[in-house]
Design brief:
Layout lengths: L4 E5 L2 E6 L4 E7 L5 E6 L5 E6 L4 E5 L5 E4 L7 E6 L5 E6 L3 E6 L5 E5 L4 E6 L5 E6 L4 E5 L6 E5 L6 E6 L5 E6 L4 E5 L4 E6 L6 E6 L5 E6 L4 E5 L4
Antiparallel strand pairs: 1-2, 2-3, 4-5, 5-6, 6-7, 8-9, 9-10, 10-11, 12-13, 13-14, 14-15, 16-17, 17-18, 18-19, 20-21, 21-22
């Protein structure tokens, strides 16, 4: 919706209106700081993951707990809500993708061989893209999860983030090998490697129409690129 912003603080989740700067909700959280937070597509729910390995869902306006998992020893690195609102995906240090059905919060798990640093859903919510410390990107079909549709190889170090373009054929992966790679899904190939950073790249994101790509790095720079068409 673009109408709410979640700020993570120790013991609290603060929700703000980014257009006015007004805080309109503050939610009491875990006694260990929350590492990840995301809003549901309709803006009604806040999903958080804590360092205690707990997965929690709150009503944004009231702070009422909708779902709370049992604490575990795992650590969550990545979190996303599907655009259709039906699924929540969480990536863990175990290399496992946890996929929750938002009607029942039934859990399905599958994964990589190492920690999952980044994940995101396709814009139509049919695919899930995951990137791992095993240097690979995997694509999962939600309807047949946990079956893997495809795997993409080419990074020389951890995959830290995944960005899906509005063009359903294109996605990008950021890596601690200092690069961002742009991939063509149907052809199963890398169509461009962006190697302008000199340190770990932690984040990549397309703009609304897929014509621009932003990358953020430990080298204290943000790079903007014209996205190359397929």
């Amino acid at each position: 919706l673009g109408q709410s912003l979640v700020q993570r603080q120790r013991l609290m989740e603060d929700v703000w209106d980014p257009t006015t700067g007004e805080q309109f909700s503050s939610i009491q959280c875990e006694p260990m700081e929350n590492f990840l937070a995301v809003l549901s597509p309709d803006g009604d729910l806040v999903v958080t993951c804590s360092r205690r390995g707990k997965f929690l869902v709150f009503k944004m306006m009231t702070g009422e707990t909708v779902y709370e998992s049992e604490p575990t020893t795992r650590f969550y690195y990545s979190l996303d809500y599907s655009p259709d609102g039906k699924y929540i995906a969480v990536g863990s240090n175990e290399g496992i993708v946890y996929l929750y059905d938002t009607e029942t919060y039934q859990l399905i798990g599958s994964g990589h061989t190492m920690s999952i640093r980044g994940l995101t859903f396709s814009n139509d919510s049919k695919l899930l893209f995951t990137g791992s410390e095993d240097k690979n990107v995997k694509v999962w079909e939600i309807g047949s999860f946990p079956d893997v549709v495809d795997s993409f190889y080419g990074h020389l170090s951890f995959v830290t983030d995944i960005a899906v373009s509005p063009n359903p054929e294109v996605f990008a992966s950021a890596s601690s090998d200092h690069t961002v790679k742009i991939w063509e899904l149907s052809e199963r190939r890398c169509i461009q490697t962006l190697a302008d950073h000199i340190s770990h790249v932690w984040s990549a994101n397309f703009n609304y129409d897929g014509t621009r790509l932003l990358s953020v790095s430990d080298d204290e720079s943000m790079n903007f690129y014209l996205a190359k068409p397929c």
